Give the backbone structure.
Amino acid sequence: MTKGDMFLKFLRLSGGGVILGLFGGWIMAFTISRIKYNQVLEINATVAISYMLFYVAEYTSLHVSGIISIVVMGLYMTNIGKTKISSGSTHAVHHVWSYIGFVAETVIFIVSGIIMGERAAEDNEIKFEDYMKLLGIYVVLHFIRFFCIMLFWPCLRKMGYGMTFK
């Protein structure tokens, strides 16, 4: 694969994901605007269209980024499509998506734990090197956190957070 091929693939994945996400957001906003005061249908529309969009992005001949498509659709819905959801359904839609997020995070951590447990069982022991790696990661993460706080300090102070060095 040449550099040009890689660049075109990058453009297809990222740019195509954005375009598909905008189109999916428009479809979702249009669909929800046609449903009036029916919480179940509005919730089902948000879930079904999101999953269909990811499927179309990843598993059809489009081959664009499903994650980017979903993120762009979410941004579209946050800015434009949110007004299409009826006021009585807004709270219910928020709760359903909060629950879906909770379940997804839980599954990810369970699967990660299983994979890490299997890897630890293969080695049958934790070595001194493993503890040193953990200590190194701990220190590096604190430096990264400090750097990010210092980088955004002026913005945070101007936004009224009143941060001090303490």
Residues 3-88 form one domain.
